[in-house]
Amino acid sequence: MRIFHLLLTSGSMVAGLLAFDVVAETSSNSSLVKKQVSDYLTADRLDNKTPYLLPQCYTDPVDDSGSYNPCYACHTASKEPNYFSDIDVQVAYNMPEPGVHNSWENVFKDRTKAIEKITDDEILNYVRHDNYSSHNGEIYLAEKLKNVPAEWDRNKNGQWDGYIPDVWFDFDNQGFDHDPSGNPTGWRVFAYYPFLGTFMPTNGSTDDVLIRLPEAFRELKPGEYDQETYIINLAIVESLMKQQDVVIPEVDENRYGVDLNKDGKLGKSHLIRYEWAPLDKIYMSYVGQAKKQLENKQVHLAARLYPEGTEFVHTVRYIDVDDQGKTSIAPRMKELRYGRKASWRTYFNLQRYVEKEEKERYDFPERTKTVIGNMEEGLIVPLGWVYQGFIEDKAGDLRPQSYEENYFCVGCHSGIGATNDSTFAFTRKLDSGHSFQNGWYHWMEKGFEGVKDHVREDGQGEYAFYLEHNPTGNEFRTNDEVRNKFFNPDGSKKPKAFERLKTDISYLLMPSRERALTLNKAYKVIVDEQSYTQGRDVVITPLKVVQKDVQLYGPTGITDVLSYY
Length: 565
Hints:
Keywords: Signal. By secondary structure, the protein is α+β, with helices and mostly antiparallel strands. Helix content is 23%, strand content 16%. The chain folds into two domains: 5-209 and 310-534, no CATH class; 214-295, no CATH class. The strands form five sheets. Strands 4, 5, 6, 11, 12, 14, 15, 16 and 17 form a nine-stranded antiparallel β-sheet that branches. A two-stranded antiparallel ribbon has the order 1-13. A two-stranded antiparallel ribbon has the order 2-3. Helix 3 (120-127) packs across helix 13 (513-529). It is globular, with a radius of gyration of 23 Å.
């Protein structure tokens, strides 16, 4: 499938499609409702013309107490081959004209009464229920997609043409997933530093991420799975994405014919040495069947780019609380997100795309952007990736996201300064050689306790740096629990708290029992409403710092420009 990027005027829609509102079902109109819900899920349409501009983008960073800068976490001077250096967004509301109005109505609603109606026991029972798989080895959503419901079948061909979940969450001590028969699925889970702000669990959700490389990366001989080969290729990808050396279990380079540690000979190695400068004729290589494909130009290799066929699964979950009040990742999923690199883009291709988009933004400020795709096959971003997601229905079961609901996720993956090949998590993976199981494990096996603060390129702790510029630890300045942990009433830092953060990020990332339960309840209200297109951020009371309208190209009030790196 060819990749397209459309810039649509604010009044345009994908041709020939009708918009329907979702209405509550009653006994008298159930057939009509079924049709309306179906059309809502399958229509390639937008109500919100700019779903890629998140509620955080409308935050007023200035109040009576001073100026804050949560924007730098996403919008920053980027690294090649990400040419979306969007540092200008920190200082001005640079967005298309239709985007000046904030369409995320949920952030202005008061949820306190609805939250009070949900008891602690009810929400705990809810978040502890696994809505993904059963004890007898069945993935609920996969089984449902095998006989796809008519209201999910966008192209009416009787089958599901998108991603069918195939992760079993049965990991060995190296993070590899296995199906009920014990066979490796190719998926490998990894531990990582949660992204700044919204994605820190203290602000509402836990999550996990898995990676899978194509079959050739898992094979030494054609058609034969070889785990050591796969371990090496994953480490090579990690090295290229992070642009640093990666420690591996000792291997014999003679088995692969590749000098992995770059010592000029083939022998025993426990290191993937990062040295890649093709203009100086310094190269790196995959191993096994992927090496052969690389030599035949069937797959590609470059710094900060994944090979084509790379897949990610990302689950967003509730927060569990045990009897001692400790919070952790919950079994229940809010969302299941999937991404696949469908095609290769060279550095030149990526630079040209950004140049064209910048020209379009300048020449046609009234136009908004969208991407080709649909809810069944996924949305296709010009960077070469396909993204698709599933989210809770009113009963708490996972259902496909609509085009508009998917676009909420795609917005961040289609071009901001902080991403690497349109993704976030893998370059934030805990480093091999310094972490439990070299960073290949699931949060249910081990939490954030004892994990040191991520060190920025300037030597500062990443989370500490974020708190210094955003004392509540979020974009909306609503997390008083974090503020009170790390700052005195006069705004001065608590030295002991920041010292603890250096060696234990759980002190920041995990909320208290009371906060976790309240956040879970607030999100459950959104699930009951099915109002995701109005915003899915966890909001308890109306967000006062979020503006309903902003001035096009007007100043944000931020004067201290910061860097994510």
